[in-house]
Amino acid sequence: MQPNYELNAELFGPQGWRKNADRFLARYGSLAIDERTIYGFRNKAVALEALQFLQELGLEGNLQISFEYAEGEIAEYPAFSLVAFGEYDVIINGQVNSKVASQYDIVKDYNSEALVTSLRFKTLVEGEVPGTVWKPLRSRDGNQYLRLEILNSLPEPVYIPEPREITESVIPGVFSVSTDGRYIITPQNLVALQAYQLAYSMAYLANGSVYTKVPSLVATGKILHRLITNHITGFDLPAHPLLTEDNPLSR
Fold it and tell me: What's the pLDDT at 71?
């Protein structure tokens, strides 16, 4: 797995290019992904040097980490965050809207928070994932769909080593935590996920405190690889890996 470092540099403001932006561009302009904001680095030390230079120029910015991996690495990697695409009006008056649902093998209905799946999705994962409930849904045109309920959740929060901002959502007691791109899965969570294969993450641990969050799916590499190789649609890919505690990138 290869980490990529993106420097989000605030070089451009309401009045145009900020003071000293030209000096930063002279040194790092060739690495621009978007010359006004984003610069890409493969090497952490070089990325940190660029951030330091930016700050010395009196400019603001931060580093964001993303991860690049080959398809052959997926099945052996222990944990990935999975995000299902969401749509409004997947379910209308208790019936599935095929015009929307037929585009996906799995889709989240924003109105009801339900996960709606195809029969093919159930066939692929049902025998691999314990703790699932499948409820039949009908569509107006007679096509069959299923509502997937995942009963298992990770026993511990996912750890965030460098939280950027912690904000409470419109739902009291539910928080979002912005990060540098790293999420750490604990050993106890790894054991549970190996048993569950697919589960919900319910909370973050950041700055020594636990924050309840909107539930999000976490899957083993085995399940993710199965979904990808069978061309399952409906997940935002590539999936984001959760780092293990012994991974050097977690520190």
Answer: 87
